[in-house]
Here is the input.
Amino acid sequence: MNKSIQQFKLNPVINRILLCLMVVGLVVFIIGLFVEPKRVWANFLISEFYLLSLGVGAGLFIASMYVTNAGWGTAIRRVPEAITSILPVAGIGALLLYWGIHSLYEWSHYSVVVEDPILSEKQPWLNEIFFMIRIIIYFSTWIWITSKLLITQRSRIVIIILNILIIMYVIQLSFLSWELLPSHLHL
Here is the structure.
């Protein structure tokens, strides 16, 4: 029996409309960088965190289905697998935060760090270079873990590794959440 897989293709008119909307969004983003950069970078950060949460949440959902040997998830497994494909895009977006660090984070200003004793103590952890290194480590780990989740063979050793990876996933997501959002809110 030869079954062909049907690919989804957007209507060319809808495709052009979406492309135009994307260009409009990019233009508005660039204009906003000149008009009110703090607000634009804060909104970008929240959008970035939303994308990140979708990708990581889908990955955790897939991993928990495999670890618990949930048979019911087979019918919907492809949906969260597709959602995890947003992680590389979210990773690029997180790298773009480098240019918004000074608008987002108080600890990125040397004059503020010198005057604040608490920020001075946190300086080894809260600095631009180490912040970006951590983001690269987090996203590369998540993308690697997700690629391992998409493997179809499941052996006992793979399930044990998945248990360890789930713990890493959650710990790293917690750390990145604490770093991205509360430090932006100056808590």
In short: The chain has one domain: 37-180. The chain has a mean pLDDT of 85. Residues 89 and 179 are 20 Å apart (CA to CA).
